[in-house]
Specification:
four-stranded mixed β-sheet
């Protein structure tokens, strides 16, 4: 999508190193569904020029599988664009939006909705993000929940869940 704005985009699927970044010399790094924790050295070197598209209404459901954990823990459903810091999903918030959903949606439906909402939010705000014209705000520090992939896999298996189950069915199993 950013290519439509004339941006040069380099995608990384492996773990980023500081040397990778020094070679590419990007203006901004956007973490989107990146499965690695960005090293503190990279955060310090690149300062506030790394942002993350996080599929939860932060500070709720930091870490792995936030859409599932937002449903499972009955937290607000939403999206957040935040500055990456050494603390996982805890950096200052640039933009957020709560997502309206209903219990007849599936996890897959919710995932698709969230992806579309990210596109809309980025499209509307790209200029302001790039030019650093958005005032950040800190996340609430009293919410400390961080979820790990292992916890997700255990719960998903134990509760015999799948992505095509309606959210109401998931709530009923809880």
């Amino acid at each position: 999508m950013l290519k439509k704005f004339g941006e040069k985009v380099v995608k990384f699927y492996k773990k980023l190193s500081l040397n990778d970044i020094k070679k590419i010399k990007p203006e901004l790094i956007i973490s989107d569904r990146y499965k690695f924790i960005i090293d503190d050295k990279i955060c310090r070197h690149f300062k506030s020029n790394i942002i993350n598209l996080h599929p939860s209404f932060l500070p709720y459901c930091r870490g792995s599988n936030p859409i599932f954990f937002s449903v499972y823990k009955k937290r607000p459903i939403g999206i957040s664009i935040h500055v990456v810091t050494k603390n996982l999903d805890a950096g200052p918030i640039l933009l957020q939006k709560k997502i309206i959903f209903n219990n007849q949606m599936t996890l897959r439906d919710l995932y698709k909705t969230i992806r579309e909402e990210f596109k809309i939010l980025l499209r509307k705000n790209w200029y302001f993000i790039k030019k650093k014209k958005i005032k950040t705000r800190p996340q609430s520090s009293h919410i400390k929940e961080i979820y790990k992939g292992k916890e997700f896999h255990q719960l998903f298996s134990k509760l015999k869940l799948n992505y095509d189950m309606k959210i109401k069915e998931i709530y009923d199993r809880l």
